[in-house]
Amino acid sequence: MKKVLALILAGGRGTRLDILSENRVKPSVPFAGKYRIIDFTLSNCANSGIYDIAILTQYLPFSLNDHIGSGKPWDLDRRDSKVTLLQPHNEWYMGTADAVRKNIHYIEQVKADYVLILSGDHIYKMNYRKMIDKHIENNASLTVGVNIVDPKDAHHFGMLSADENLRINEFVEKPKNTTLTMASMGIYVFNTDVLIKYLKEMDNPDLDFGKHIIPKMIHENPVFAYKFYGYWKDVGTYESYLETNLGLIETVDKIQLDMYDPSWKIYTRSEELPAVKVGSKASIKQALLSNGSIVAGTVERSVLSPGVIVHPFATVRNSVILNDVEIMPGAVVDNCIIDKHTLIGAYAKVGFGDDLTPNIEHPELLTTGITVLGKHLNVPEKMVVGRNVRIFQGAELGKVSLNKINSGETIR
Predict the structure, then answer these.
(1) Same domain flag for 176 and 310
(2) How many CB atoms lie under 10 A from the CB of residue 56?
(3) Which of 403, 409, 361 is closest to 387 using CA atoms?
(4) Is pLDDT at 37 greater than 70 in this prediction?
């Protein structure tokens, strides 16, 4: 079997996730209760039999480094496997390909036949070996994983067209207007010698695969698309993060991402916590409940991460609650994302009312009524918090006038 080196790009700040990425990189953001976003890419590697992995980190790497450790949960601590964390030394990474270029000596040292380049911030299950086999069959220099998207969403992706054999003949990075429907997933299989050649020859300081390398390569080398028809989500906004989490609690016939498939497990580093505890008067409908959580109140269409406590007569609806959040008696949390170690006081209402004023400071982040709270907050008893509100870690909510935060406000 040919040797494959997987490089996972995990240094993005994830600015559209705003509060959730204030103290962690996007791949390290918790997801689906007990997981982190990067767990899906790492699990794909393990399930595909790819055990030589390097993770390129940059901003705020501590949470991610601590989560991955030696790679044991993904079986990456074996004698014939390893996971290496690579961080920039003297200069920041300026583009996706620049990040790889700044680690070119590591690639040369590994001496792999192929380099598989992956993003660490997408939710999907994929057998990379099938893509690599197709790359070899096509005698390609580069193969790009693609997914079909609506043209109205094309401005988020590198868009491409290909002939009947799927050889790529056009590639446009994040076009404002296009009729193209094939989107790059940010998954690339390179012949190692070809990758090294282009990294050394191209002198763009902000060298990027989508902007520079792929458009140049399609005129000089056989570059093919590999169509992936499965579930694939970029949870890069508050809305997509909430919707994708809540999509996991749909009924079996509607669920798009099966996390219960024993043949393709999603691995993670788990905390040693006791089993979920459900009180005698609890009401639970459509929910993911993680280890260590205690529910004595009402939970509807929500995801509870490890250690969450919902007290009697408290209600959580349509929300994602991260680790060790405590929701006191009588409190109501509706359409919210709440980060770790936050306390919601008794009879507080968070995500309240019909006023959908977009977030005034950053309307592009919150317009649909989602309210987001950061870590380590203490929401006072009977406080009322409206819709499209952002409350950052460190905010002193006890000093808020009238114990009320109106829709669209930002509190720091």
Answers:
(1) no
(2) 24
(3) 409
(4) yes
DSSP letters along 343-397, please? EE-TT-EES-SS--PPPSS-TTT--SS-EEE-TT-EEPTT-EE-SS-EE-TT--G
Question: Alpha helices, DSSP H only, in 236-299?
Answer: 238-247
Q: What is the pLDDT of residues 370-408, one digit of tens each?
A: 999 999 999 999 999 999 999 999 999 999 999 999 999
Burial 71-100 (b: 16+ CB within 10 A, else e): bebbebeeeebebbbbebeeeebbbbbbbb
- What CATH number did the domain enclosing 169 receive? 3.90.550.10
At 91-139, the pLDDT tens digits run 888 889 999 999 999 999 999 999 999 999 999 999 999 999 999 999 9
Rounded to an integer, what distance in angstroms lies between the CA atom of residue 224 and that of residue 232? 20
* Average pLDDT value over all residues in the chain: 93
Helix (H) or strand (E) holding 146: strand 142-148
Q: Are residues 47 and 177 in the same domain?
A: yes
> In the chain, how long is the greatest CA-to-CA distance?
68
Do 391 and 385 form a contact (C-beta atoms < 8 A)?
Answer: yes
Same domain, 112 and 227: yes
**pTM for the model:** 0.93
Q: The domain containing residue 46 runs over which residues?
A: 4-247
pLDDT at residue 61, as a whole number? 63
Please tell me whether residue 137 adopts helix, strand or coil conformation. Answer: helix
